[in-house]
Write a structure and sequence with these properties.
Layout (H helix, E strand, L loop, with lengths): L1 H23 L3 E5 L5 H12 L4 E7 L1 H11 L4 H10 L7 E6 L4 H8 L3 H4 L2 E6 L2 H44 L1 H9 L4 H42 L4 H8 L1 H27 L3
Antiparallel strand pairs: 1-3, 1-4, 2-3
Helix pairs in contact: 1-7, 1-9, 7-11, 9-10, 9-11
Length: 271
């Protein structure tokens, strides 16, 4: 069961990082015609900056755009030669805008569809990365549902194992329990040792699992770093949320073992 819970945690971490990585690569590019002046572009930039969804905007002059174009097509001399034959820079300036969420880009594009900007803006495009985020969310949801089902299955198996173990323990100590009742022991006095065992079992299992989880994260981090280009993602998350993770896992195991103990004692002990 703890394995399933930790699998859910890893899936959540990796999904959040993947979504964050894709979002960081999204921007909307506003391409201006070569006739657009710096004043026109700054006016558009100021207009866009008024939207609370906009995080930043970066302005590239015609010369910078041409330099980027040459760098991107450096291995294609025919394209470079075609540009040189024109004798002048055919490219216009570009304004690259980033928003807080991918869904905000369409709002910015729609806001620029006004008559005063039609003659200076040639195109407005942004990559189809929002679809990639949607696919990530879909995969995450499906994997998450599978892992939840797996957690429930493992929890049921663990419940039955613990229940049967306690049954055997109670059966082997039935004489001792009967003597305790004869001398006036209360119900909670009889239940006490089994509940303490449940507490100890929960503590030991969570401690062992947390140790294995930490070293597992240390092992996986180099491979995750290759994908997300950020070191220590898993280990960093574990260390910064260790208290929360311990409480969640300890609570889940303690509830499971306590319920198993109480159920077994209620059915097989007349206390």
């Amino acid at each position: 069961m703890l394995f399933s819970i930790n699998t859910l945690i890893v899936i959540r971490i990796l999904t959040d990082e993947a979504t964050k990585l894709v979002k960081e690569q999204i921007d909307v590019s506003i391409f201006f015609g070569y006739q657009a002046t710096d004043e026109d572009i700054q006016e558009v930039r100021g207009y866009i900056a008024q939207f609370p969804e906009v995080v930043s905007s970066e302005y590239f002059t015609r010369e910078q755009v041409l330099e980027q174009f040459r760098a991107e097509h450096a291995d294609n001399p025919d394209i470079i030669a075609s540009v040189d034959e024109l004798g002048e820079n055919p490219l216009g300036s570009t304004l690259v805008v980033k928003t807080r969420e991918p869904r905000d880009y369409q709002k910015i594009i729609d806001a620029l569809r006004v008559p005063e900007y039609e003659n200076i803006i040639e195109a407005k495009t942004f990559g189809d990365t929002e679809a990639a985020i949607g696919r990530i969310d879909t995969i995450t949801t499906q994997v998450g549902r599978f892992t939840v089902a797996l957690t429930i299955l493992f929890a049921a198996i663990a419940f039955l194992i613990i229940l049967n173990t306690i049954r055997v323990s109670i059966y082997t100590q039935r004489t001792e329990i009967s003597i305790k009742k004869l001398v006036g022991a209360t119900n909670w006095f009889v239940r006490g040792p089994y509940l303490v065992e449940a507490l100890v079992f929960s503590s030991v299992s969570v401690a062992i699992t947390s140790g294995l989880l930490y070293f597992g994260f240390r092992f996986l981090d180099p491979y995750v770093t290759v994908v997300f280009e950020r070191p220590g993602i898993l280990t960093g998350y574990f260390l910064s949320n260790i208290l929360f993770l311990l409480v969640i896992q300890f609570g889940a195991v303690l509830i499971l073992t306590t319920l198993s103990t109480l159920l077994a004692m209620r059915r097989y002990l007349r206390v």
